[in-house]
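Hi again,

Forgot to attach this to my earlier email, sorry! This is the prediction with pyridoxal-5'-phosphate bound. I've pasted everything inline since the attachment limit keeps bouncing my files.
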Amino acid sequence: MTMPPIDLPGAPFLSQRQGHLWVEEVCLSTLAHQYGTPLFVYSKAAMLGALAPYQKAFAGRDAQVHYAMKANSALGVLQVFAQAGCGFDIVSGGELSRVLAAGGQANKVIFSGVGKTRAEMRQALEAGIACFNVESEAELDVLSAVALSCGKVAPVSIRVNPNVDPQTHPYISTGLKGNKFGIAHEDTLRGYLHAASLPGLKVVGIDCHIGSQITSAGPYLDALDKVLDLVEAIEAAGVPIPHLDFGGGLGINYNGDTPPAADALWAQLLARLDARGFGKRRLMIEPGRSLVGNAGVCLTEVLYLKPGEQKNFCIIDAAMNDLPRPAMYQAFHHIVPLAQRGGEATVYDVVGPVCESGDWIGRDRWLSVQAGDHLAVLSAGAYCMSMASNYNTRGRAAEVLVDGDKVHVIRERETLADQMRGERLI
Ligand SMILES: *Cc1c(COP(=O)(O)O)cnc(C)c1O
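C-alpha cells for the complex follow:
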C-alpha cells in the first residue's frame, strides 16, 4: 500500500517540491538538519494570510482584531501581529509582559480569564489596557477596589455566557451552562447594574466567547442574537454599552474540517448586526487558533520502528510535552514525511518517548519511513508550543519563523541549565 494523498492543511504556504516538503521558500529537511528536532516552524505569510480575511471583513468599520495570544505566545509571533495592527487578548499578567516585550500596545490589550489576581489587575491598570473582560460578580468588586487603590478607573466589559452549544469538543466549549466561564445570560443585566454602581469601574462594552474549533456559523449567530438582546435590555436600564466583543473560536482544517472562511462568517454576522441596527458600534474580536494553527508545523525525527503483533509503533522524538493536543483532546494532526521515500507503507501508531500511554501523536497512520527519517506534524501553530511542558525533563523545542527565503530563530532550544535554574539541593 502506498501512502494515500492528503490535502495539506496550511497550503499554499506548505508545498511539495521534488519530493520534499517546503514552507514558503525554505526546505523543511534542511531546517531539521540545521536546527535539530523537535522544531516548530512557522510561516509569516501564513499568519498574515490568515489575518487578511478578518481585515477584509471589517474594512470600513470601527473594529479591532485582538489576537488571543494563548494560542501561540512566542515573542516573534506576537511581533508579526503587533506590526500588522493587531491588539491582543490576554489571560494573565505574564501574557501582558510578553505583549509589551514584543512591541505591542497596552491600549490595544483586553484581559480575559476567570481568575485574575489583584497583582495582575494592578499590572494591567498601570499599563493602561483597553478593557477587562470580567467573568464574575465577585471579580467586579475586587477590580473596583484595586482600581481605586491605584487611583484609576478600570474599563470593563462583562463576559456573557449565552448558553449556546458551539458543537465542539467538551474541553473547548466555554459558552454553555455548566462551563466555568462568564456570567450567566440571565444574571448579566444585574451584573451591569452592579458594575455601573461601582466607583472604580467604567462600563465600556460586552463580550462573549463560546468555544474553540467552531466549524459552522450557527452557534455564532445564536450567540450574537442573545448578546444583542442583552445589550438592548441593559441600555434600556440606563447603562450604555459602547463596544461589542464577539470573542474568537473559529476552527481550522485539521483533517478535512470545513469551517467557514473568516470573511464569509463575518459577512453573515455583520449583516445581522446591520439589520439589528448595531453595525456602527465599535466591534472587537479575539481570534487565536484561526490566525496561527495552520501557519505552523512541528518537525520530528523517527527514532525507532517497533513492529508488534497488534500494533506497529513509530517512535518519534516529539512527544505529548511538545504536542499536547492528541493526549488532551484526542485531537488529530496530519503526520507526513519531509522527504518522500518510495516503497511500502505500513500502518503505525506514531508515539513519543514520554512514559505515558497517552503519549501518542497519531493513531493508525500509513507511513513509509525508516529510523532517522524526518516527519512533519501539521497544523501545529496553535495550542502546541504554548502548552508545552518539561514533563520527563524534556527541554522545550526550538522555534523558527520563515519569511520568504529567510529563517529567523525566534526561540532557542531549552537547555538543561534552563530547566534546572532556580532549583536547590536540600
Ligand atoms: C482562547 C480564547 C480565545 C481564542 O480562541 P480560539 O479558539 O483560539 O480562537 C478568545 N477569547 C477568549 C476569552 C479565550 O479564552
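The domain at 112-287 is CATH 3.20.20.10 (TIM Barrel). The chain has two domains: 14-43+293-420, 112-287.

That should be everything now.

G.
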